[in-house]
Structures are given as C-alpha cells and as structure tokens.
Amino acid sequence: MFSIRKSSTELNNASEPRWHFPSALSPEAHADWGLYKILEHMGLHEILPPGSGKNRAKLRKDIEEYHTAYAIDFVDADIDTIALRPDGLAFDLEEKLCVFLEYTRAMDTNEDWAEKKEQEKNDRYNSLLGFINHLSHREKSGWKASQTNFTTGVRGSLHTNQFLTRLESLGVKNKNAREVFNP
Fold it and tell me: Please, are residues 89 and 98 in contact by the beta-carbon 8 Å criterion?
C-alpha cells in the first residue's frame, strides 16, 4: 500500500511540489481546515481575533451577497455552510487551484451506485464551492475551487480508470502507486 504525502511528487514550474495536502497531516489539522481557514489560505478572508463575532458577521454578509448575486433564496440555515469540512484538501499555489477531496464507500448493489453517491457528494458542497468561486471572482484573486470524489464500493467495486485519472490529476503518477489500483 501507499499513502499520499503532504505534497505531491509532481513538480511545478519552480521545481517545487505542485500539490499540497494540508488536511492530510493529522486529525487536528483536518479539524482546523474549515471554511475560514480555506478562505484565509486563498487570501479571500482574514481571520480576526476570536470573541468579537466579526468573522461570522463578515462571512454572513458575504454569503448573503453570494445568494443575492445568483438569485438564490437565503435562509439562516445557509450560514451552516461555514461548518462543512471536506474529507481532504489539495492546493496548487502556482495555478491557484483548491480541490475539495471527498472519499466515500457506498453500497455497490445497484448498477449506478457510484454515480448516485458522487451526485450526493457534489450536491453537499456545490453551494460552498460556488461561494468560494464567487469570492475569488469578486476579489479578482484568480483562485478556482472544485471537487474531486474518490468512491469505492463496500464490496470492493471500483471504477478503476476514473479513480486513476483522478489520482493522476492530483500528481499521483508514481507507477508503483498506480499498480496498487490496477494490478
């Protein structure tokens, strides 16, 4: 077996690791990588000292603006998107890409099991990714946020080509690592 390091082996134009996986470092680090931290990392939000309520108030204002800009009905529950945390994150600082990584084991008894589970995951983060991309566009930062799902069946089913393509897009191009999935 292999594990993804905290950075990819693929190098960018500056001969540095292209992808960084900050939430892969420890359970504590994963807990810290919520919306505030993601936005701060991308330069889209400054985290203010705790206790004043200003972080939440500013973010609420930005979320309401996003809903207004795209004619999306806003309800107070929409503020709960702040609490969503993807299973993992990948950042390409040079290309300004932020990728939410979602890992799922789904019941693979139906033919369309993977598609249904991936749509469920996409629906869960769609608004949050739209919000991040809206802020990036508004601030002219150049960042793009997207999501990559890794779905396996509880009985071992795997869409191998799709899985390998997604790994490769994140810099996992090592032949030995790929052989684990494609013996």
Answer: yes
Q: What is the CATH number of the domain that holds 26?
A: 3.30.70.2640
Confidence of residue 141 (pLDDT cuts 50, 70, 90): very high
Q: Would you report the helix, strand and coil content of the chain in percent, each value rounded to 5?
A: 45, 15, 40
Q: What is the pLDDT of residues 142-180, one digit of tens each?
A: 999 999 988 877 777 766 677 777 777 777 776 555 454
Structural domains in the chain (count) = 1
Give CA–CA dist 58/63, Å, rounded: 9
**For residue 87, what are the domain limits?**
22-158
> Regarding predicted confidence, which is higher, 115 or 159?
115
Region at 51 (left for phi over 0; alpha for psi -120 to 50; beta for the rest): left
